[in-house]
Amino acid sequence: TLPMPAGNCPRVLVQVWLDDCRAAFSALTSDKQTREAAEAAAESAKSYAQPDDLIDFGHLVSNRKGGLSQLELEDQVTSDLARATGLAEAAESESRRLNRVLQLTGFSDPVYAEAYVTVHQYDIVMDVTVLNRTKETLQNLTLELATMGDLKLVERLQQYTLAAGASKVIRANIKVSSTETGVIFGNIVYEGSGYAERSVVVLNDIHIDIMDYISPAVCADVQFRNMWAEFEWENKVAINTSISDVNAFLEHIITSTNMRCLTPPRALEGECGYAAANLYARSVFGEDALVNVSVE
To answer: How many CB atoms lie within 10 A of CB 20?
Structure first.
C-alpha cells in the first residue's frame, strides 16, 4: 500500500515501493533457494558406505536347527556392536582424537594415567589408561572420581591389580544434565607390597567444554527476533583482534563458537568496512544460543 495516492506519489517512492522492494525480495528468495540447494547437494554427496562394504541380509540367513555358523555369528555381533557404539558413523580424524587425550599424571609419578574423553549427547565416556611404572605389583588400585557441576557418575569403579610395567584401561561413564561447564577431578589409590598405608596419586582436573554440546542450527529471522526480545539477558563482549578483514573475522567467530550464520552471504558481500550478522546454535538439551556480531 502506497503512503499517498498514486497520482500524487513522487516517482522515486513508486520506484522504491514497487520496483526496488520487489527486486530485494526476489534476490532474498533466490539466495535462500541457492543455499538450500547447495546444502542438499553437500548432504547427498556424503558417502555412508563404501562400494566394497558387505551387506547383511537377515532374512537370507539359514534357519537350520544347529543355529548360525561361527562366521555368521561374528558378522552379526560385529554389526550390532558397530551400531551400538556408534562406530558405523564417520570416524573422527586422528588430529581430533589426539586433542581429546588428556594427561592426568606426571611422567615421574609411580602410576601414569591419561584419559581419552568421548562426549555423546547425554553422557561422557572416559577411557583412562593406567600404567604401573614401578617394579612391584600394585594391589587394590582404584580410580576415584568426583564431579562438579551438572555431572553425575553412573557407577562405582572396581579395584584392580597391576603387575610391574603392566597397564589397564578403566572406563568411566558420566551423565550430563545441562550445558554448564563441569569439572571432573579425582585420584588413583593403590597399595604396594612394601607400604603399610595406601598411596594416593592426585589427577589433573578435566574441564568439560560447553562447545561439545552445541551444534549449528537454523531458525527463521522472525523467530530469532522474537527469542532475542524474550530473553531478559544480553551480554555484550568487546573484542580486540589483529584480524583486519571483517569477513575473515566473522568466519573466525563462526568457527570458534560452532554456530551458524543466519545472515545471507549476499548481505555480507562488498567492501564497506562494516558487517553485522546473526549467529544461531542449539544445544542437545534444546537450549538456544543467539549471537549478534557487529564488526567495524
So the answer is: 11
